[in-house]
Amino acid sequence: MHIIACIKQVPRDNTVAIDAHKRIDASGIEPILNLFDEYALEAALSLNDEHGGDVTVLSLGTDETVDQLRRSLAMGATNAVLVTADGEPDIASAVSIVRGAIGTLPAADVIVCGRTATDDESAAFGPMLAQALGWTHVTYVTKILSSSATTLELERSLEDETEVVSVALPVLISVGKGDVEPRFPSLLRVRKYAKAEVPVIAAAAFTNVSTVVDRIPPAARKAGEIIAGPDVASKVRTLVDRLIADQAL
Amino acid sequence: MDFTANYDMFLNEEHDLLRQTVRDFTEREVAPNIRAWDRSGAEHGEGPETRTHIRPLIEKMGKLGFLGICFPAKYGGAGMDYLALAVLCEELERMDSFLRVVASVHVGLNSMTIFQWGTEAQKMKYLKPQAEGKQIGAYGLTEPNSGTDAGAMTTTARRDGDHYVLNGEKIWISLSDIADTFVVFAKTDPSKGNRGISCFIVERSMPGFSSYPLHGKLGVRAGNTGGIVFQDMRVPVENRLGEEGEGFKIAMTALDSGRYTVAAGAVGGIQGALEASVKYAKERHTFGVPIGDHQLVKRMISNMVRKMDMGRLLVYKAGWMKNAGRRNTRETTLGKWHATVSSWESADDAVQIHGAYGFSDEYPVERFLRNARGGVIYEGTRELQELLQADFAMGTRELAPKLRCELPAYNKDAWEAE
Fold this sequence. Notes:
The complex is a heterodimer.
Chain A: E1 2-7, E2 9-11, E3 17-18, E4 24-25, E5 31-33, H1 35-51, E6 54-60, H2 66-75, E7 79-84, H3 91-103, E8 110-114, H4 125-133, E9 136-147, E10 151-157, E11 162-168, E12 171-175, H5 187-193, E13 200-202, H6 232-245
Parallel strand pairs in A: 1-6, 1-8, 6-7, 7-13, 8-12, 9-12
Antiparallel strand pairs in A: 2-5, 3-4, 9-10, 10-11
Chain B: H1 13-30, H2 34-44, H3 54-64, H4 82-95, H5 97-117, H6 120-131, E1 137-140, E2 156-160, E3 163-174, E4 181-187, E5 197-203, E6 209-213, E7 225-236, E8 240-241, H7 247-283, E9 285-286, E10 289-290, H8 295-323, H9 329-354, H10 365-375, H11 382-394, H12 412-416
Parallel strand pairs in B: 1-4
Antiparallel strand pairs in B: 2-3, 3-7, 4-5, 5-8, 6-7, 9-10
């Protein structure tokens, strides 16, 4: 089974600055692997544990992204590919670029990606990539219940219900936070892959269909309030009164 | 900011990915629980029977390769170098000292000592399963009435045919109730002073061995510390590490390894205190500005940065010397002295920056302070390290000539060969 895991590097937190050109300035903030991509990679690796084959981890990024790809190799991926592009592709362009890169790889049975990226929060990349490939996609997957060489049985966690879906391969799944925590790399693999050469695919020129004209950073969170009172019972009463008054209860 | 950037004269991509891995591990597996684990040590005492978190966590560290980090693959290790051991210890203590203590006693004091002095058979029997994390090692030198004055130990080992019979008690033993094997010291000839001390690898399963937990420690409460007792414990001759009478030298070289891990851990401890202080100094406002705008708070933060960077450079220099196979007692003790004292002072400043909140365990800094105090005492007191530096400088102490067994220099190809 060949599984492709699409991953993205994001800033650790969202305290980013917006520069004069309305671009996100994440300098000084630690770059990390998108949280949900870690769960997606774990899903890919556990399928690989069961069925063997290859897990190719692919990222559209910059030279800096190589660290995340090497870390993914240390976690258990068998191949890594960095895709680079000049300029800042919008989601439609990113999908087109990644689709082109996937075309250069051996045929895949499953593509995994995180349900959303914690930087742009669009949740559109996975479904759009599946559409571009003409593949079935299943979103909000939190568990792989069973798998064979031709089908996956998946659990989807939706707002009000949990759905169990059986789907034929090939399929793209976007993965959310489930019960299975992503594995840590072992030091043997850290040593083996810390300096791994990662092949680079340079994307052809692209034309964005959308342009960001403004960005408004999230408002800073307000400080909490400490409720005073002579004893715990009266503090709790005040708290509950406030919650009712604020319609939180 | 990334306080660990720009050390590429010592570190490479392997160390960077290692740091990331250990940090992810501590943030995910330990951070959500550490306050409760630390409290449990005060409430329930330190016996493993009430401390169910310790064994599973050590098992996880073993599976990831942390417990064999700097040993050749043929002995079950991860094949990384001695600087990797420093990075591991920094990241462990950045979270909590009890994690670094595991690395200090299992890797530094026990496994590295067997690696340096052990026969091939001893390395295969003890080092390999320890490096693979299948067995846990600890170390016993200190006794109820002998600490810095190790030569005053009263534990004895009497030869009886192809066995030694050990009697005595060791105290302040980290992982006393958890470890499977212990590198311990006993007098085979009490008339010869330090030259009458020998070293042994003993197993918990040997008849006559018992252990007990200590209660009421100031810090490192998430871990397990206690005593071990030998009552007519018969130890096979093949478990003697080194020659008879070589024990004192072995103990001192073990401390070259152990102090290195303590020093590196203390650097991580300073970083933990610094990061908590920087965060709080930006959040907390007084007189209409963040407290980080006040000059005396800035001074405490800049002092932490200075002490941390100096400590890190001293530790990496000692690690670089270990990699090159050079004796490093002077450099290691200097690093241990500076880093542990600085870690205590930095935690104290961190509590001060946090004000009254720093006085409660709502924030981690009071735990950092309690934990840091131990490092100023164990594996060679602040005073001993201070005396050593003067003696080295004045030429009144010289390193012993070449030892019969030196700690092997790091050799990447040999280390990585299966």
